[in-house]
């Protein structure tokens, strides 16, 4: 591929590290493309990446060549009512590049390449003590931070149950703990993933294959249920579990992507005053806040990085991630250096 040329408001990044996400599998299978038309014959996925600035546009003075940066995938059109209110991940011109909307690796070329162009507003300078592996995982933490944003409430003292010990769920445990949640419960189906949650200071681990997760969480909370349930698994039955797990008047955040339509007991939610929120991606500049926590040593990401592959072995990296070989969690592409 030719090296892209940055526009006036753009930054050219030489990618050093990128990681695979479930959305990338959908892009590869051509089941997911929102570029305003059919998927192109040639497209570069990748929305979780970090690297070094090698060129800046004529209007850019926020970054200089040599800066180490991490990306945020979403750039709204910044002209619709949603973007102007700060909800740029819900841009009303989603996929319309002519109006300024971009999502790296989903509607425009992403980071599974040596060079990528980002709008200046989607980059954050890395502190010296955060390496590229950690930086890439922090894009996932941005989704977690955004999920807690929509609750519009402090987490101090709130009981939080997290469903799904994937990268988002495991980081949700850490963030909930750092924001003062008590207790923090993690629900999953694989003990190896749950054990990582234990490293991240989850108070309770529940294997839903071995016991009824709804019953277990309610017992832990004295029969009332947690204040908040964060659903990160994307499993078909998880929404119904969350509805019956959370306390009366409690709140649910759906952060996982579902592969099929979901059936859930919404009448129970209505009758019990349960609020259901959704979140997509790392909006509200939440990656910056993730960086702030990490730079103070309050987030730990190394346990999530399980595999590294050079860019030329991307096919094997995809298969390793898709098939969860050797308990793959975060599969990294070593693009440059």
From TrEMBL:
InterPro entries assigned to the protein according to its UniProt record, in alphabetical order: ADH-like_C, ADH-like_N, ADH_Zn_CS, ER, GroES-like_sf, NAD(P)-bd_dom_sf, Zn_alcohol_dh
Domain (Enoyl reductase (ER)) ranges: 1-333
Source organism superkingdom: Bacteria
Keywords associated with the record: Metal-binding, Oxidoreductase, Zinc
Cofactor: Zn(2+)
Metal-binding as UniProt keyword: yes
SUPFAM superfamilies given in the database record: GroES-like (SSF50129), NAD(P)-binding Rossmann-fold domains (SSF51735)
Family label: Belongs to the zinc-containing alcohol dehydrogenase family.
Protein name: Alcohol dehydrogenase
